[in-house]
Amino acid sequence: MASSAAQRIVIENCAIATVDADDTEYASGHVVIAGNRIESVGAGRAPADLENVVRRIDASGHLATPGLVNTHHHFYQWITRGLATDHNLFNWLVALYPTWARIDEQMCYSAAQGSLGMMARGGVTTAMDHHYVHPRGSGDLSGAIIRAASEMGVRFTLARGSMDRSEKDGGLPPDFAVETLEGALAATEETVRKHHDASFDAMTQVAVAPCSPFSVSTELLRQGADLARRLGVRLHTHGSETVEEEKFCHELFGMGPTDYFESTGWLGEDVWMAHCVHMTDSDIAAFARTRTGVAHCPSSNARLAAGIARVPDMLKAGVPVGLGVDGTASNESGELHTELRNALLINRLGPHREAALTARQALRLGTYGGAQVLGRAEQIGSLEPGKLADLVLWKLDTLAHASIADPVTALVFGAAAPVTASFVNGRQIVEDNRLLTVDEDAIARSTREEAQRLARIAAQG
After folding, report:
1. Where is 79: in which H helix or E strand?
2. Using one digit for the tens of pLDDT, what is the confidence trace for 341-356?
3. Alpha carbon of 345 to those of 19, 223, 274, 361: distances in Å?
């Protein structure tokens, strides 16, 4: 907890959606930040006699929520947006892997800045990146990505990815863009030991994250799971994204993706998987039984025509579910707050129709659900005393939202709401929809230049 001498920031006169276990809400309330913790949340104004108050914010016309938590992304794809726009997943990968195989450290750094900046401006306070492309001689890609997150000031999980199944093995990536089994495991362990922080208020954590059944060997999955559990970190991968993956697993392993993952040690409360679109009843039951988490990526699933994930059924069964932007080559907006709306709308196209998700369920997916999936529900994901001070003030009194009486409905069903303020660990990183910690215009120039440089290199072969 924050010490009694901690400097305090008082936020008052706003609607509050705490997303706690009881979904407590206040039509007009206050939040007190002390140091890097939430000290109090409640109705009405904050106590007038608080000591060490360095700032008071009149948040009239705003909704305060926990910061959004992104559970799946590929930052490097920021510099390959707008390509292969009419492809399904398999053809999209075939089209883009030759370009992705040419990335280097500076490209990854700039792309991470772009990806992080767009999310942070849109209310993300905890981000993650599943980075699995490590071409030979490309530099310290993990270090570059972590540096970008640290400079931005967001809480961050790097899912250190890997691939060891290349074209010569029947996979999709070029041979020089994959690692050996031994090399992938050694580099992953080095990244965990160098960068992972297991403390309550950690700003950087690392997960073990072989890419997918398409691009990694069974042995990399097995030994990767053993490595993660020996080091005490989480596990992440892609799972059940397409019907092609289902067919691939049956042909190669004689079982579906979920059974295959379970056979390699990849189900458990320390595991979360991206997409999980094509899940049977038994698959969902297995995830629920083992508390395996899911990163739901509605926009990317639609962009690549992968299908509609059975999110209502997962939630009913007790599967932890969070939201993911996914890579910006399959979700060019790169924003998580739009995924609140897209998760709700797309799931209503499924069999549950209008009963699929509510606005409050969508907000929970993007906050507390994401914290569960990343293994950080005790620290973030809801506005409660003692939790870390990661929160967002959404401006809802403008033309876009002012006539919607319920603020949570306005946030989820309405247009993308402006972020007046975003705090991470008690530090403000966004003000009036602009980043405070980095130069947005410089990042825009850098990402454009690196995208052009990558395109030139890829064209040269």
Report:
1. none
2. 999 999 999 999 999 9
3. 21, 39, 19, 12
